[in-house]
Design a protein that fits this description.
about 40% helix, alpha/beta, 8-stranded parallel beta barrel, binds 2-phosphoglycolic acid, TIM Barrel, globular
Length: about 260
């Protein structure tokens, strides 16, 4: 049993509608009623418009609510943005920041990701901060340099804080939605690197911070990934849209 309590978070991305979400929530509740899962924190991060629906359905399940993004600014004239205070108001416990899809599609820089982290933490929302290298960067032998740079941008904000509201997700871009998972050994190597880097940068809670793996995690590969010493759960995309698949992944985290 690890000293860090595993976290499994579902990142629904831009998927779902009222009816299909209802189906998914019913499935999650039913799976938990069949067999409760203890010793694992579970979260789901639906798209913004469905956060209210999720809050109502998750109710007393123990599954925490999260969002996929947050503004880097406080409330005000920022058309189209959603602030950390709004997420807190809606009952969000977590928010994902720095996902590679936002870094690439929305041009989010390390500096923007750090501002988002700061805004979320200021409103007592836990952050799941994503880092990851592209295939080209890995093949050029730059994976550690890229991850190191991404961690260094966040470390000053994280440095004085405890581990309860800070989670890192290592998501190699080449493994996201591709069906190609990093091997447990490759992922473990990077997780250990990230933890060492946090320590070097003076992050007080480096040893207690949970580092999740993300990128094509399925029920069939979750157990071997979660068994690695520095892999403390997962950030799950595609497989989080199917209730039984997601719950089976959560169960894999319960037994490590
Ligand atoms: P995937 O996505 O599980 O579909 O690969 C993971 C993520 O992008 O968070």
């Amino acid at each position: 049993m690890k000293s860090r309590k595993p976290l499994v978070a579902g990142n629904w991305k831009m998927n779902g509608d009222i009816v299909s979400n209802e189906h998914l929530f019913t499935g999650l509740r039913a799976a938990l009623e069949r067999t409760a899962i203890s010793q694992v924190d579970i979260a789901v991060c639906p798209p913004f418009p469905y956060i209210g629906q999720a809050a109502a359905w998750l109710g007393d399940t123990g599954i925490a609510l999260g969002a996929q993004n947050v503004a880097a600014f406080p409330n005000g004239a920022y058309t189209g943005e959603v602030s950390a205070s709004m997420l807190a108001d809606l009952g969000c416990r977590w928010v994902i920041v720095g996902h590679s899809e936002r870094r690439t599609l929305a041009g989010e820089t390390d500096g923007i990701v750090a501002s988002k982290l700061q805004m979320a933490l200021a409103h007592e929302i836990g952050v799941i901060a994503c880092v990851g290298e592209s295939l080209e960067e890995r093949e050029a032998g730059q994976a550690e340099a890229v991850i190191g740079r991404q961690i260094d941008a966040l470390a000053p904000v994280m440095a004085p804080l405890g581990a309860d509201r800070i989670v890192i997700a290592y998501e190699p871009v080449w493994a996201i939605g591709t069906g190609r998972t990093a091997s447990p050994e490759t992922a473990q190597e990077m997780h250990a690197f990230i933890r060492a880097r946090l320590r070097e940068r003076g992050v007080r809670a480096a040893d207690a911070i949970r580092i999740l793996y993300g990128g094509s995690v399925k029920a069939s590969n979750a157990a071997t990934l979660f068994a690695m010493p520095d892999i403390d759960g997962g950030l799950i995309g595609g497989a989080s849209l199917v209730a039984d698949d997601f719950m089976n992944i959560c169960r894999c985290a319960a037994v490590v």
